[in-house]
Structures are given as C-alpha cells and as structure tokens.
Amino acid sequence: xxxxxxxxxxLDAARAQLRDTRGPRYWRSLEELxxxxxxxxxxxxxxxxxxxxxxxxxxxxxxxxxxxxxxxxLTACSHPPQTELVPYVHGQDEWATGLPRYFATTLTxxxxxxxxxxRSDEGRPTKVEGNPxxxxxxxxxxxxxxxxxxxxxxxxxxxxxxxxxxxATWEDFAAEWLVLRARFDRNGGAGLRVLTRTLTSPxxxxxxxxxxxxxxxxRWHVHEPGGASLSRGMDASGxxxxxxxxxxxxKVILTLDADFLSDPAAGVRYSHDFISGRDPExxxxxxxxxxxxxxxxxxxxxxxxxxxxxxxxxxxxxxxAQRLGxxxxxxxxxxxxxxxxxxxxxxxxxxxxSTQNASLIVAGFAQPPEAHxxxxxxxxxxxxxxxxxxxxxxxxxxPAQALAPKANDDGSLRALASAMRVxxxxxxxxxxxxxxxxxxxxxxxxxxxKHVPHLLHLGLYRDETGTLAEWHLPLxxxxxxxxxxxxxxxxxxxxxxxxxxxxxxxxxxxxxxxxLEGNFSDGRALVRQQSASQLRDDDAxxxxxxxxxxxxxxxxxxxxxxxxxxxxxxxxxxAIESNILDARLSRNDKALELLFRPDPAIGAGEWSNNGWLxxxxxxxxxxxxxxxxxxxxxxxKRYKLNNGDVVELRSHGGKLHAPVWIMPGQATxxxxxxxxxxxxxxxxxxxxxxxxxxxxxxxDSPWQADDLQIVATGENCELATTQHHFNMEGRDxxxxxxxxxxxxxxxxxxxxxxxxxxxxxxYPDYLKGEYAWGMSIDLNACIGxxxxxIACQSENNIPVVxxxxxxxxxxxxxxxxxxxxxxxxxxxxxxxxxxxxxxCEHAPCELVCPVDATVHDxxxxxxxxxxxxxxxxxxxxxxxxxxxxxxxxxxxxKQTPQYEAMRNPExxxxxxxxxxxxxxxIQRIETAHIAADKESRRLRDGEVVTACxxxxxxxAIRFGDISDAQSQVSKAKASPRNYAMLAExxxxxxxxxxxxxxxxxxxxxxxx
Amino acid sequence: xxxxxxxxxxxxxxxxxxxxxxxxxxxxxxxRLAALAAxxxxxxxxxxxxxxxxxxxxxxxxxxxxxxFSHKHHVGDDGIDCRYCHTSVExxxxxxIPPLSTCMTCHSQLYTDQPMLKxxxxxxxxGVPFHWQRLHKLPDFVYFDHSIHIAKGVGCETCHGRVDxxxxxxxxxxxxMQWCLDCHRAPQKYLRPHDQVFxxxxxxxxxxxxxxxxxxxxxxxxxxxxxxxxxHR
Lengths: 1008, 233
Known about the structure:
heterodimer; A: Dimethylsulfoxide Reductase, domain 2; seven-stranded mixed sheet; six-stranded mixed beta barrel; 43 strands; 20% strand; B: mainly alpha; 11 helices; 45% helix
C-alpha cells in the first residue's frame, strides 16, 4: 500500500494541462488537474471503497473467515423477541395510531424565523419540512433546520439544572433568584445584565423591555457570533432599518463579498427568488457578478466572478461608483485597479447602466459601513430603490443603549466586557449563548467573568460558558417550547412545542417570566398574551398556529431611501484606516489579510455537536469534520504548501496552528479561516476537532485581520475530504452552455451526446407498471447548498460514520453533491451536481448480484432488498455512478434510545454488512400509493414528493411519473437541456439532468 | 543377510494374490450405523434450530395476558364490530389497540366487581396502562398496512381466523413471506365484497369467479403485488 497522504500537486503542471486542452475541461481537485503520476497511483492504491486497515495474508484471511462463520452461527441462535403492546389510557379523537401528523412551527437561525412543518410520529418529532406559507421558507429549508431534529435528540444536551458542579432543581434556582431579586428591587437593578443573541421574538423583546422598565439600571446586551443578515441595514443616524431585496426582479446583480444565497435570515428565500429570475426556457436570465475574496455558494452561481481581497473591495466599489457617476467618492485608499480590473469595472458599469431600475448591488456583512454606504449610493444612482430594493422598520429587537448609546455602552458585548472588568456587573444572565467560546480573544471573556459574582447561563448544552456559570439552566429546544419570532420581512409566527421538554428544560420566555414575576408562567399563555392584539379570539389563534404565520404582520416596505451612513460624520465615502492593503502590498508583496467566516456547515459553533452537519462535505471544499485555512494556489506555491500542511498563523500577537487547504478561486493575498471548531465543551461529537479561530480575532475588526503572517511548521495533518471519492474518472458528466448559445441553438449544451438517451440495447425492456417514476435535476437551479443531503439523511435514517471512515471513502450519504471546477486554478468557474441513484432501467448493479438483492420493481424503481443482501459489494463495483453505500461497520447506533426515537419509522435501519442506496423515498411513494389505491384513483402529479425535492430552495429537483406527459417531471425532461449522465453506457437512467446555462457578459468574453 | 530377495518375494505375493481387502467385514454395518447417527444428529439439529428460531407463541398458541380478554365473548356472543375497538384499521397501517377508555364505555357499568377486570380498573384509575403480549409481529423490514387490505376486500378472518370462536386470542397464520405471497400472487382466492370484510364465517358461493370480478372492481394492479418494494423499504 502506498502512503495515505495525497501526493503534492504541481501548480505549473496543472497550468500546462489546462493550456493543452481545448474546450471546457472539468476537474474536481488540483491534484487531479495536475494529473501527476503520483496522484493516479495514489488514487488507485487508495481507491477509497477498497481501502483496508492493513494488507491481509492468506493465513490471516482464512482465520478471519473461520471466526466469522463460527460467530455467524452463534448470533443466529435466537428467536424473535416477545414484544408487547401498550394501550393508551384515554383515546384521542381523530388520531389514528401509526399515522404521522404535521405541525406548523417556527425554528430560528441567528434569531430570524424559519417556518417549518414538523412531522410527529406518535408524539416523536422525526423530520422537518419547510412551511409553504412562510415567507422565509416557501416550503424549503436550509441544512440547519433539517439538523434541528438531531439537535433535539442529542444525548449530549444539558439534562439538569446545575449549581456549579452540583445537580440542582429549578425550585432551587427560583429560591436563589428571589434572594437576588430582593436586592435588585431595592437598587433599581444595578449590576444586573442580560446577554442575548440576535432576537426577533416579540414576546421576549417585550419581557426585556419590561425588565428595563422595572429595573432602570439593569442593562441588556446583544452578541451575535454568526454575523448579521443582509436584511439588516441602518440609516444615516445609525438607527437600524430592515432592507428588502428583490433578487427575482433584478436583471443585473453585483455582490461585493455578499453571500446572499447562504444568508442566515433569508438565504432560502433569496435562493428561490434569485433562481426564479434565471429561467433559460423563458430566455430571461439575470446576470450575477460576484466580487469576493473567498469562494462562496453565491460566487459559484456567478456568471462572472472576480477574486479580490476583502480589504480591496471598498476601493473596487469606489472605482465602480466613479464610473456610475456617484458624487464625492473620496480617496480610494490606494486601490489601484489592474488592467483586468479596469476592464471588469467598465463592463460591469456598462451592464448596470444598461438596465433601467432593475439592477442590484449588495455588500456583505463583513464589509465596513463605508462599503455599504457606497453600495447604497450606487443603488440610488441606478434607480434601484423602490424596484429591486426597499426599506422598512427594523426587525431585530435592540437594547435601548444600542439605539441611543450611553457613556461607554452601546449594548455590545465589548461594552459588557469592560463593565465586567471594572466590577459593574453583579449578576449576568446569558440567555442562550456561549460567549466564553465564540468571542474575540482580546475580550478575554472567561477572564472578565471572574469579576462577576453571579453568572447564570441558559443553554442547550452545558458548554464552555455553562461550566463557568454559578447556575447552568437547561434550555428547552425550539421543538419543546412555546415561542415566537419574526422573519426577514417582519412576518411574525408562533413556535409550538411538538414534545414535552425531554430534560426538563425551560424556554427563554419562561425564565424571563420568573425574573419578572417571581414564578414561572406558562409559555403558551405568554405568547398568546403577546399576540393578543393580532389574534383576538381562539379562531384567529388556531388559524395562526395551523398556517404557521400570523397574517398581516410583515413590515411595510417603502421606497423612501434612508441616507445611509457615509464616513462617520462626513459626507464622503473615504476609505477607512484598515483599507490599505494595496498600500501595504506596494511596500511588501507578502502582505496578507486573514478573514474570519462562520463555518458553512456548523456556523459559529452552535452546531458543533451535530454529527450530520459535521459530516456534511462543506460546500466548495468538500471537507468534513475539520476546519482549515483556505489559501490561494499562488500563495501555496510561494510558501511551498500542500493540502493538509500545518502552518502557524500569526496576527495581532496571537498565533495558532492550522492545516491549509488550497482553494481554487481564492484571492491571492487572502487567507480564510472558519469559526466553530476547537470546541472543548461541545459534547462527544464536537469536542477536540479543528482549531479555534477566535484566538486571532479582535473585537475591533471581528471579520478581518490585516497583519497576517504565515509560517510553515513542517507538520502535516490528515483531512477528510470527499472531493476524490466516487470519482467517475474524468468522464463527461456535467454539461453547460451560455444563454446566447442556448437561444441560438437549444441543443448546444447537450449536442455532443452521440447516442441520445437510449442507445441500442440487447437487454429486454423491463415490465411496465402503472407508473414510471423518474427524476429531473436542474443544474441551472442547483446552488450547491446541500440541503438535499441532510434532508435525505434525516428522512432515510442514514448514519454518521466519523472522520476516519469518511477518510476511507465510506460516507453514507445517499445523495451527494459533486463539485466541479472549470478553467484555471486562480479564477475557475464552478458548478455543483447532486447525484442520487440514477434508477437505471438497465441497471448494471442488478446483473451482478448473486442473491437477487437488488432488483427492479414494476414501476421502474431499482430496489435494494436489505433482508436478502449478503454484502458482496459486487453491485457497488459495477455501478458506473458510484451511488451505492455499504455498511462496513455497525454505523447505525442502536444503543442510544434518543436516536431510536428520532428515526423515521417508515424506513428500515440498516445493519452492518448491508448495501444501501437512494430509494427515491420509496416510503413516500408507498404512502401516497396506498392513499390513492384506497380511493381507487390514479396518483396525482405532485402527490409524491421526495425528501430532497421538498427541501430544495430553488426547486432544482423534480420527481414524478414520466409516463404521464403532463407531469412536471416529464415537462422538465422535454427540455432541450435534458441529458443523462453516461448515457453512452446504455443504462437508461431514470434520473436525468438539465444542463447549466450561464449568462456571461459578451464584453468580458475573452476573460476566463 | 538376504534382505533384498525376501522383500521382493513378499511384494510379489500381493501381486499374485489380487487386491487386498480394503473394507473389513463389519464395514457395511458400521456404515449403516454412522449414516443413521448422522441422520439423527442432522434431524435433531434441524428440530433444535426450528425450536430456537420459532416465534415465542406458535400458531394456535395463546399467550397469557394481563386480562384474559375473550374475543369469543365480545365478537361472537355480543356481536361487537371489529372497528369498535380497532378504530384505525381503515385509515392506518396499524389496526389500533383500543385505549382503556374504550373498555370502560361498558365496563364502568358491567362486571365492575369481577376479579379478572381488576387490572383494567386499576390501570384506568392510575393512568398507567398494563401491557398486552403481542401475537402478530412481523420483522422490522416488513411494512404491512391494514388499511389498504381492508380497502381492497381482504377480510379480517382471512388472516386472523375465526376470532369470534377464540376465548383467548391465538395466531392462525404463520406470517411467513411464503404465506403472504400465496395471496399476493392470487388475491382472487380470498377477496370479499366490501360489506363482508368484517364478517366472520362468510363463504362465497364461487370464490374464484367472485374474486376475478372483485379484482377488476377494486382496480387491483396485480403486476406490482409481488414487487419487493410493496412490502420492503
């Protein structure tokens, strides 16, 4: 066996490869692109499906065989266990046991509401779906809403009130609070501080206001570790406003480091809107330009993407504003556009001007206020305000000091930290947060907390903050308690519990009722009371619960544009102090910037203990279970670094060790690190993996540091990426074309298919049934968010296997999302392709199964019969699409009762030695089939919705009966963009793809 | 010593005397004995395996229940419809075990002083239910649905037998895949008109003719009845 380390790649070889190719060439990793002999040898030796612990000799093999046969005999010796049936004591009306029920409720991400319909099987929440009536969902969800189910059932959640290290009760805490309260009643709350994350809950906001009224000297602070939503803006006086984007109306969109497709508050809705404005069938497609330092999901969808260091983006915006005729641009901070940049700027400016009032410029949360002001000024100049962008009242609730800052107190965590240090804080209540872990190192919160006599922590986990707290209080999960929240557009909705708190947790509003009134109030009564003005009677209340939205609560969107802040106090858009990268580069071309971003899969740390999210290959890098430092190929060459090489990052006097990952498309001088790793008290899943990037952050500039130095350590670290797995050996798998080409010749994208979808075959056609199930995946709509992977994991009881097993290529995801690059390593274009089972009509897997465990059913499904499977893995070897997954070990946890309760009862839990794969959600097909058959009618189009289809924010996946020409899926497959993967093999896949269409600017045609 | 010639002569004796006796005279007997022993051992192993692997309660075996509930009394004597207790049988995969409150609709008035009903009264009052011993249990990878079978005219009696004659409930069918397929391959042998699905002791005059007619009437797609995906997921 060769060493397990990926051989080093050679950038020059990669470039030479690209020079020598004609036409598009797609590649998945830099190593593959360089195509050194070492890589091919490595890939063959490591062919991950066949990786072994150690080579086995003949004698050892025979020993194992003998032992396993003996053990197999032993384990077979048992009869089925005698089971019991437990009747309910009181019957419940209209509740047939065995039938799932769905409840509309509200989950939150960074404080903002995400409407959800949650499935309940006999009282156990098992699956989250989007709520079609909720504006932030429209029926879809992101990965975090899907993973909320695993979070609910996480056995590592805090299970008891703790006083220090001693188990206590809520009554103990209530008694303690009464003592503290007596003091606050006397001194007006001096020394009492509350720390929350971003919150939009009307009930909690009203309670915090009541607390401030009751105790005028108490203070409330807000700290949001995950970054602000794009929907949060502010006006000239610094007062918050909500911003409403219409990506569906915009014809030309420019993002300045704004990853709007993964926005925490409205990413799902923005994705939907963005894609609905890009329909090549109608011939109308918006054009997206992205300027960003590190590739994002939004950058991947861009028609033109310009890698540019974060600190230069403001200068870029100034240069663009100049071309658009915005007055008083101010000094450009030394940004010197190269000739490429100038060409880009000219083309973008011309394109923006060419669309009347229908363009949109968005600046990202990590950009300084000046960049936002510039983006706004350009939107005003282009006439976009009132058309593609509008403004409304703020959605987040904010402390009084944040609106009118008092001396040294603007309601931030920094103000709180300094108050703690000078002994102004007697009692600090942390309402769902983990400031000890997720804050900048310079605040030294753990140290500051030593000056706080009473730290009260309400949290889902007894985390880094919880273990330091005098009182740790278990928080009820969002699916266990009543609550409310507002969406990005202001719509309020109610969160209703689906299950009683598993570990006696209480919600934030219940705890606040104790603080205010001295005893716990019922959460439902609190929410009902708060919404009484909108929901006057029981009917209105029940209707709001049923639909999941309180009607008519969205903010009024006005086109009155608030004058946004320019440079503090002046009317210019001057570059700010830190924006001097170009100046520094002119002195020293080794100047680097360090960017901090929430991890795309586990956020800023609140999802660290979630196995589904840890194992989800992160969009773009396809890494699992780790964070890295993303560097550009040029930088890697300069420092002679390879993937996995550990470097020391030094910034602001701090240093930490991080493995590097060479990211095609990364801006040359930018190094990106992700937050959320290096946890010490996250739980069994999240502890001790990765490094804590907060160690280098400063509270002045939380998203960017400009004095980075990197030093190679010579060490190397093994990273588990799935980018090399299930590689299909460079065959022609993705198709794309441009809009102008497509309109000229609709066949252009798929023209080089020699045989069409159905090459001649010697095999007989399968027996046709009443329906013929098929799927169509629109690569033009797929943004690569991977919500489908997590939804499938939740729906189909797919286990988590761990970093070591992923490293061996044994991840179990039934639908993977492949990631392809095209073009050179510095500025590649990227696209993603979801790959579920192709459900081949002539399935190669079926022919090689010695026990008929994989066979066709009459409706065209390629089914896997678990109880027949003996685990030869022949089928997987013979599958050209590499969609079959084998249980090399007992991955499904059958010991932990919480996981047993979490699983979908409609899907078998697979055991060791069994092959499994995508079933097109056969349980959903059967459920719908039975419902229709009972009424002796045909299944209606859209009656069967697969889990991946339901969750997709952009409706990229369509599923249905392909024998019905009027079905959605048939119409999709009738598109000239339709193609089958590896059609030339004659497998006749039922899953087909629609080619990606780009809409590049002809003026930038020569640029790659 | 003249070893050489002597050895040569001995070797020649064999040659001259023909083949040596490979099998002893008793071999036939020993062989039959061994074969018999093997047969006994194999049979014993098969019987042992079947005994170990069998369901805890076999076909026609009743199990001891916390209350000796008699279907014979409730169905046969009192004529209570199946659906009075098994309420979800027409809507859900699971026929439903009646909540204790269903029992109490009658038994809050009737036989309240009977000792055999004591567990029921106690459970109802305390709110902690007793546990019935389950008789019909399919493997976890089988997804049986009661409602579709009822809708397509499979009578309760076809699988559960004459429960109106069972003082204590017992299984009458082996619940093996072979047994399921017997009907899935030829449902016409068992189909009933909708109004006879819950009847006990009903017989068609000409089952096959009726079954063929009902197959068409119920729109049963026989092509997919033996698909793996119909029962296994």
